[in-house]
Amino acid sequence: MSDYRLQSAYLAGGWSRDVVISVAADGFISAIRPAAQLPDGGRGAEPVDGIVIPGMPNAHSHAFQRAMAGNTEFRLSAQDSFWTWRQAMYALANRIEPDELQVVATQVYVEMLKAGYTSVAEFNYLHRRRNGVAYEGANALWDALGAAAETAGIGLTFLPTLYQTSDFGAKPLKSEQQRFEFDTDAFLRAVDDHRRRDRGMRRTGVAFHSLRAVPLDNLRRAARALRSIDAAMPLHIHVAEQLLEVEACQREMGRRPIELLLDTGLLDANWCLVHATHATPEELEAVAASRAVVCVSISTEANLGDGCFDTRRFLELGGRLCVGSDSQATVDPSEELRWLEYQQRLRETRRGVLAAADESHVGTVLWRSAAVHGAGALGQPTGSIAVGQRADWVVLDAEHPTMAGGALETILDRLLFAGGRAAVRDTMVAGKWVVRAGHHAADAMLRTEFGRLVKRFAAD
Fold first, then answer.
1. Catalytic residue among 60, 127, 236, 275, which?
2. Which alpha helices (H) appear in 129-242, and where do they start and end?
């Protein structure tokens, strides 16, 4: 048991000053008490100067894509889009080896911790050797991601991803997609085996890459089988990210992709729809009613020219929303949330669009809701600072210029809208400090190994 005396903290019930939080050996919060009510006034607890907020779950990550961030920002033609970017992604996906993946993933997981993410949903469709042959026994690519999370000290919801076809109509995989292939029955066995090895901060869920990559009958069968393995298993899927995807689905299937998902009757609070950029008002209403979470990745959606999610409408319908770093174009939850609001301001030509009836501070609304719903999407016991939750905290430097002089209720506004990312100082995950004063124990190793690796990729 460890006791921490927090100068200022955003607890599940709101802002508090001078509280002592007890964290059990398993990393979970066992008690929260005002320091003044303790016999020693809290003097025996470890002081935590600064402002403590709940760590943010990263609900959508493709870790390997960190190795190409910044390398596709030049125009090949006037028609550049997601689909042209995808070719560069395929090239990287088809050359990276397990040991290289571990270095890249460790690098980006450490970056996440320094930015305020304390757990991550890793949406992984790298399953086979470079020649397309399946691994016998342990999957080295899956294990590389688990080892990276352990080295970084980040909570991990691993999402092995079912990927079977190249487009709607069960079109066969292309040569550049062979590394992603998985038979449904073999996939279910592999997921069940991986789930049995979950421990500590590691949780196994499942992703269906998209409706163009998984035939609807296979998705239904797999989803039902997974429910028998784990009734609360997190299930994620890319959906309605691109207009061309929506149009192709309508041509081939006679329905829009979100309509098809809704028609299955499978959606519930354990599902996470990634992007849903081109959802209709009717679809948003039905998704909100299903209690499925939507994960938006504004930095990636903007980087790829996807379009804008109708955030205001979805939240007004009672929708549950979270964020992720996706392609790692930006690894910063405060930027994702800032642009969530800014997109709406630009569309509606007014300010404070996403404020709530019970909270006028936009930063507080966005951080609070994304943390809670992100935790739900990951199936991790995080998202707020409360008894029974894992001690996943981010500490902001109260003396940093972006924080200095601000009232507590403005702190999360400052984090999102006044460059407060620079004030992120320390990060705790499961009661252990993994970042102190902006430094991580793996920094020196990564500076050498990651730098050498990306230089080699660039030279090839």
1. 275
2. 140-152, 184-195, 216-229
Catalytic residue among 306, 310, 326, 392: 326
Give tens-digit pLDDT for 116-136.
Answer: 999 999 999 999 999 999 998
What are 76's two structure tokens?
Answer: 């090949």
Question: DSSP of 273-334, one letter per residue?
Answer: EEE-TT--HHHHHHHHHHT-EEEE-HHHHHHTT-----HHHHHHTT-EEEE--BTTS---HH
Encode pLDDT of 380-415 as tens digits: 999 999 999 999 999 999 999 999 888 999 999 999
Q: What confidence category does residue 460 fall into, taking pLDDT thresholds of 50, 70 and 90?
A: confident
- Secondary structure letter of residue 100 according to DSSP: H
Q: In this predicted model, what pLDDT tens digit does every residue of 34-88 receive, in sequence order?
A: 999 999 998 999 999 999 999 999 999 999 999 887 666 666 665 666 656 678 8
Closest Cα partner for 331 from 298, 295, 368?
298
Residues 389/26, Cβ–Cβ less than 8 Å? no
Considering only the top CATH level, what class is 2-54+385-443?
mainly beta
What does DSSP assign to residue 426? E
Supply the pTM of this predicted model: 0.96
- Is there a contact between 294 and 320 (Cβ–Cβ < 8 Å)? yes
| pLDDT attached to residue 27 | 98
Measured between its terminal Cα atoms, the distance across the chain in Å is 51
Q: State yes or no: is 392 an active-site residue.
A: no
Domain boundaries, the chain: 2-54+385-443, 56-378
Q: Which CATH superfamily is domain 56-378 in?
A: Metal-dependent hydrolases (3.20.20.140)
Let me know if 326 is a catalytic residue: yes
